[in-house]
From TrEMBL:
InterPro entries: Clp_N_dom_sf, Clp_R_N, CLPT1/2. One of its GO terms (molecular function) is peptidase activity. Keywords: Hydrolase, Protease, Repeat. The keyword Cell inner membrane does not apply. It comes from Saccharothrix yanglingensis. GO terms for biological process: proteolysis. Residues 89-229 form the Clp R domain. This is Clp protease.
Length: 242
């Protein structure tokens, strides 16, 4: 039996410390409950992915979480679809949202939006931390863009409406949220999308990044360092007593 490291008393104290009135606390408690549900989903998803990498079958996974093989696959296997609603990107920064728009542009001659299109969107958003991280880590300037361009499907397809995200792209976007939660961030930035692409090993983007020397470990270390430095600079600029 796993003893949860989060106690109800701790949550009550945290909510009460942030809000003085009862209704404000109630609203905050509802929001926190939703966040905990999301954390729980990603916690299970993390270990489902780990079990699959270790060779566990979907039947085994279903039995472990108390559902059928089909139910486990329906919950955890991404399907190619365009069912991302605007609410799915609520936590995304403006830059990260622009990356998705740019990915759609790069996929204008494709039947689906793939991880390769998402990577090109990250590179186009040159002011984002993802693009800066790639520039810092790639073997030579511009090699990542050239590599991913070479991997694009040269066939021109009629663009469906709505245009679906590929299964690998949907998984990468899911892993971007997971990276944000794991790092304790309340937003999904371009850097988290990059980490999601690198974590989705079977995607075209991950293969292109590997070819140019951008690894998940090095990218995450650079991202964490840059964010920590930015927080330290902001704290130093804050007026005394603020």
């Amino acid at each position: 039996m796993v003893v949860t490291p989060v106690q109800l008393t701790d949550l009550i104290v945290a909510v009460a410390a942030e809000h003085a009135d009862a209704l404000g606390r109630l609203t905050a408690a509802v929001e926190l409950s939703g966040q905990l549900d999301e954390l729980g989903d990603h916690l299970i998803g993390h270990f489902v992915d780990e079990a699959r990498r270790s060779g566990a079958s979907w039947t085994d996974i279903g039995e472990s979480i108390g559902v059928t093989k089909q139910a486990a696959q329906k919950r955890f296997v991404p399907k190619e679809s365009a069912d991302f609603t605007p609410a799915a990107f609520d936590r995304y920064t403006d830059r990260a949202r622009r990356v998705v728009v740019l990915a759609r542009h790069h996929a204008r001659f494709s039947a689906r939006i793939g991880t390769e299109h998402l990577l090109l969107g990250l590179l186009d958003e040159s002011g984002g931390l993802a693009a800066k991280t790639i520039a810092q880590l790639e073997a030579a300037e511009g090699t990542t863009r050239l590599t991913v361009l070479k991997r694009l499907d040269p066939t021109v397809h009629e663009r469906p409406d709505p245009q679906p995200f590929s299964t690998h792209c949907k998984k990468a976007l899911e892993l971007a949220v997971r990276a944000s939660l794991r790092l304790g961030h309340r937003f999904v930035g371009t850097e988290h999308v990059l980490l999601g692409l690198l974590a989705e090993h079977d995607g075209t983007a991950a293969a292109a990044l590997a070819d140019t020397g951008v690894t998940r470990e090095a990218a995450e270390a650079h991202v964490v360092r840059e964010i920590d430095d930015a927080i330290s600079r902001a704290q130093r600029r804050a007026p005394r007593g603020a």
